[in-house]
Amino acid sequence: MTGTSGQDDESKPLGRWSVLAYGVGHVLNDITSTFWYTYLLLYLTSIGLPPRQVASLAITGQFTDATMTIIAGELIDRFGHFKIWHIVGTVLVSVAFSSFYWSVCVPCKIIGIDTPLVQMIGYYIFDILFSGGWSCTQVSHMAMVNGITLDQTSRVACVSCRNAFTMVASLIVYGIGFFVFNSSVSQVDIKEQYHLVATITILIGCCFVIIFHLGTKEPRVKQVSHKTIPRGSSWKRWLKNGLYYRVASIYVLTRVTTNISQVFLALYVISDLHMSQSSKALVPAIIYLCSFITSVLLQELEWSSHKLKAIFSVGGLLWLFCGAVVLSLPINMNIFMYILSVVIGIANAFMMVTSVGMESELVDKEVEGSAFVYGSLGFVEKVLCGIMLYILESYESVTPVSCDPAYPCFTVTRFSLGFIPGIAALAGVIVTVFTNFRTSHPKTLAEPLLA
């Protein structure tokens, strides 16, 4: 009777507080990753590191993140305890991120030698710790949603809430950076400015982690699976499941669309459209804000497999339209980029919320193997995006191309922002159309999230 009662409780739609508490569990990761990838190059070069060493650090972090994603997925599936893994990842991220931007050379203090080589080793150590901790937090948080509730609408609401707070986290970073970096023009204060921003972002992120742990319960892994399926063999079952590969394709193509566009957006508005310097902050802010609003609105829908596919397809087609506009937008019409950023924000939210929703639909009630699904898909998208960015950036020209303001001219930046995300989005829509999920019956949320 107890087991039946517990399953009935898990089948009920989640309330507002439960959805909100889960949604803020990834804010620390989102804040630190936004700060890390936006300001890493600027920070390290400003303190004197050669660009080649900075690039090697970035590549090391990307591949560490990808590798640890798959390892964390397997370990979490094997040993469980989602919230413990989340805490471990949080501690690693907080310590490594703070130490990295506070320029604390741990190897120098241990061996008593302070040289550029030893300092670089210290940067690599914190880079690896940060990336590994980030993966532990990400996989444990994503995998938890299937154990928190069996109700599909509540699961999509949790994913949508998490996506909304991803946008909030990015806006927090850019807002803090804007005020801190404009507070002083002295070159001597550059290090102190980064230290201050790093400290504030870590404190804010940890506050959200506390809310997450207070508001969520440790998911129960269904013990019946131990009697029928040997522990550690769940990944074999997933690799034999054709639906796994289709969902993986949809998720990876979504991440290619959003990640590649994010990297080249600021460069596009400055170099290709010759917009003001403020636009490289304003355009991303509009995108994040529109994504946030869209994600909140998506939480109020009743969800089914058909609706997941329909909303994703709309988002993919919107991105295809945006990609075509990016490729054809001339300098003298750059004001339309602000309007286009609204559409991009909506398309990003549609694709991200529904693609992760498809992951939870794939996993459904098989909580024990959920971490492998989220971990393996994260591994593939990180490796693929890393390789694509390396190739695209290797052809990037450092000198601006002269162009007739009335006509668009071809650049690697324009191609990377317009063609690559647009084609990836279209491919995702095609895969989605030919993907069939299990039939489900939608239920409404017990309470709207932000009523």
From TrEMBL:
Record keywords: Membrane, Transmembrane, Transmembrane helix
Secretion signal, residue range per the UniProt entry: none
Calcium recorded as keyword: no
Presence of the UniProt keyword Methyltransferase in the record: no
Transmembrane segments: 20-42, 84-104, 164-181, 193-214, 243-269, 281-298, 310-329, 335-359, 371-392, 412-434
Family the UniProt entry places it in: Belongs to the major facilitator superfamily. Phosphate:H(+) symporter (TC 2.A.1.9) family.
Annotated protein name in UniProt: Major facilitator super domain-containing protein 12
Species whose genome carries this gene: Datura stramonium (Jimsonweed)
Top-level taxonomy: Eukaryota, Viridiplantae, Streptophyta, Embryophyta, Tracheophyta
